[in-house]
Structures are given as structure tokens and as C-alpha cells.
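Dear support,

I submitted the protein below through the web form. The confirmation email said the job was done, but the results page showed an empty box. After a refresh the structure appeared. I'm attaching both so you can tell me whether what I see now is the final result or a partial one.
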Amino acid sequence: MDFRAALLEQTRAFGELIRSADPATPVPTCGEWTLKDLFRHVGRGNRWAAQIVIEHRNQPLDPRDVHDGKPPDDIDAAIDWLNRGAELMVDAVNRVGADARVWTFLGPRPAGWWIRRRLHEATVHRADAALALGSEFELSPELAGDALSEWLERVCYDKRHPVVLDPGQSIHFHATEEKLGPTGEWTVVHDDDGVWWSHSHSKGSVALRGPVTELLLATVRRKTAAEAGLEVFGDTAVWDAWLNSTPY
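What the results page shows now:
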């Protein structure tokens, strides 16, 4: 997958979704945020990450110190500002090299890590905007599947937000899109090595099955499993405890 191209594409789609909407529209899946808050968060976030990369930072950057971190009031200029932020992200990684080590909230990572992170920040927040506006939300199965993989990778290893999964417990996700093949299954386990995930096939203490985009939205708490139309098998208390411990 071309993460650079996908970041630019998803950012443009996010901007076009919001372009004609009332900026004061509440975004229920993001607490008390409005579309204006969501737009600023996505746009400044790309510039924030780009600045971390281009400056080879080994410490976090205060969001207040982001260059040109506030969108213009004019909507067309604001959309240009949004798209330019994604371009700056791509340009920064291209300039320093994808393998250059920089700060991330998971510890030092290759600069290219930020492209994928910012891509899936855009995919999920585009879902937030679509849900707020009552619009359709679609992702290719490959992109939705990678978003789910990226999410699991982060929550399993992010020590700032320890997830709740008792030793011996496991969660299995099964996408119904056959074209995904082995990458359409995800298993999270807690064993002697801690909490980790793989694309292995497993029964799981609890299992969820359905379209991959709906699996993603349920996992990131944008929809309940019932709202997403997912089949749920096994101990739902394991799923509820896991969800309640994950970052929002």
C-alpha cells in the first residue's frame, strides 16, 4: 500500500466532506468537539508530526509551537491549509528519509512511521465527520484492514494506556471480505509475553465477525458492535473491558 498517496487522498476526502458543512456541527464521537475542532485537530496534527520529523526531534513538540498551526477563517483557504499539512508530512519524511529515527509517543521510531499514523488518524476522523453529518463512510477493505492493524499495534504497545485483557484471555476479529485472506483475521492474546496481536486464526475468548470497516469502527469505539451489525461470539465482558481500557 502506498501510505503517502493514501494520506493525501484521505485528507482531501476529509476536507471535502467538511467543506460545505456548518463548522458548529457537534461531533458526538469526539466528546464536546464540533466540526471546526475536528478540522483543526487533523490539520494541525499533520503539521505537528511533520515538524517533529523535519527537525529530527527526540522530544515531543508542544502543539502551541506548531508552525502555521491555525487554519484560516476562509473555508477555501482552510481546505488548502489542511491539504498542505498532509503534503508537508510527506515532504518531511521524503527529505529526512523514512528510516531516520525520530520521537513518537511509543518511543523512537523510523520517520516513515508517522505517515501511516497520520493516514489512519485521517481515516478515523473522516468517519467521525461522516457520522456527525449522517453521510456514508467507506474505505477499501485493504485500507480499513491496515487501520485496524495499526490500531492494535499501538494499543498493545502503548504503555501510557494499559489495556485490560487478563492472562489467558484473547480477542479474535474476522473480516467477512474473502479478498483479505490471512490479513483479514486478527487475534489479540495475553500470555507469558504480555499483550500482543497477530494475524493468526483463533477462536478467542470473544470473537467479532463482520465487514472490516465495521470491525474498525467498533474497535475504535465509533459504533457499538450492535450498531456496526457485527456478530459477537463468546464472553462479551472480555470485549467490554478491553474497549473501556482503550484510548478514545
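Response: this is the final, complete result; the empty box was a page-load delay. The first helix runs from residue 3 to 19.
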